[in-house]
Amino acid sequence: MSPTSHLSVSEVARLAPGRGRILVVDDEEVIAATLQEFLGGEGFEVAVATDAHSALSRCEAFEPDLVLCDVQLPGADGIDLLDRFLRVRPDTLVMMITAYATVENAVAAFQRGAHDYLMKPVLFDELLTKIDRLMAYRRLLLENQALRRQLHARDDVPMLVGEGPAMQRIKALLRKVGPTRSNVLITGESGTGKELVARALHALGAEPDSAFLAVNVAAIPHDLLENQLFGHVRGAYTGADRDRAGLFVAAGAGTVFLDEIGELPFQTQAKLLRVIENKEVLPVGAVRPSPIRARVVAANNNDLCSEVADARFSADLYYRLNVVTIHMSPLRDRREDIPDLVQTLLTRQAKRLGKRVDGVDNATMRGLMAAAWKGNVRELDNALERAVILAEGPILSPADFPPGLMPDTGLASEESSDNLRAALRDYERRHIVRVLAECGDDKREAARRLGLGLSSLYRKLEELTLR
Hints:
Blueprint: H1 9-12, E1 21-25, H2 29-41, E2 45-49, H3 52-62, E3 66-70, E4 72-73, E5 76-77, H4 78-88, E6 93-98, H5 103-111, E7 116-119, H6 124-153, H7 165-177, E8 184-188, H8 194-203, E9 212-216, H9 222-230, E10 231-232, E11 244-245, H10 247-250, E12 255-259, H11 266-278, E13 280-281, E14 290-291, E15 295-300, H12 304-309, H13 315-321, E16 324-328, H14 338-353, E17 359-360, H15 362-370, H16 376-390, E18 395-396, H17 414-418, H18 420-438, H19 443-450, H20 454-463
Parallel strand pairs: 1-2, 1-3, 3-6, 6-7, 8-15, 8-16, 9-12, 12-15, 17-18
Antiparallel strand pairs: 4-5, 10-11, 13-14
Helix pairs in contact: 3-4, 14-16, 15-18, 18-19, 19-20
């Protein structure tokens, strides 16, 4: 990952238009030296390479903002070299220079990612005008990237990472439900981020600065749980030397988050139902109830419907909690979110551990996207923490992760190993094939599981040559 992708707005501001780092790649040493002298005199920091091999190594080490590359190089085609530049430094701009300009060459260069094209002999005024324009464009691009990151940090659905179809549906639902006072039930496997969804609901509420109080129902003994939820008055039992407000009163107009609600004892379920229905709570030992304003958000990793059917959970309480249901899909069903999750979690872990880790290589990303993740996002976070601790450099490789975590992705070709788009396409193909097989080739059911419309699935099948 390019270091420029982490620039803040203030850091980008120092890149004044027309100034920056330029790598000149030309096998004619006189031309290269002349360009270096001229551009250096104009305030640029300039490096020179005279062949393809040194050009790539200089590009990686020098981290240029712009590459001026001759189309004709000994033992290499400058257009092909363009592809390799953009793999090494995706944020770098490239201007091709040639003495043999043709329409076909120009079109090929732009199609492969070049940002401009210049004829030899080079006219310094024309060159400087083009460079100024490209540097201004780069500065604007970096500013936009930095602003997008700041806006994402203040997203109207905070804390939830991922832009895949499943996460987009959840965010759309949160925008509708968040401002209301309705109770919400969040379901999903352990480690999928149910508490983050609850916190996002709270942040989207009418009073986001109010209290968010969470309790894991399964982690607290029965006798202590009621005391924590409902509170007590002085003298209610031995040792109760003062009044204590329970979570429902202490939350005020905020949110009480009840995790693992399915573990709530049946006796306490009846008391919680009365609290929700009457909007008041009776502390232990009290004779008068206290009004409450808190919103209730509950979560469970098992299907509460089956618990109700087996008479292990109150049907009345279930319907009171289940005004709106938000289901968090397991990570294996929304692998398209893994790259964003990896970068977000990696940045957090690196900061917490005080290490510089900028990202992962392509092989690692392919492996992370193919891993089973039975523990979902929590397991991914733990794996990244371990990798950051063991990392020897700024880019993580498969060797930094536990053995056996990443399956063999089967991407042996050179194109797949270097091209992230090809790797993602290969994964997408295999994932759709697996889901179709599990659904008995029922495309409507497969589309539902994949989070796609039926017509979108058919388009995918055609694009991936699976029809």
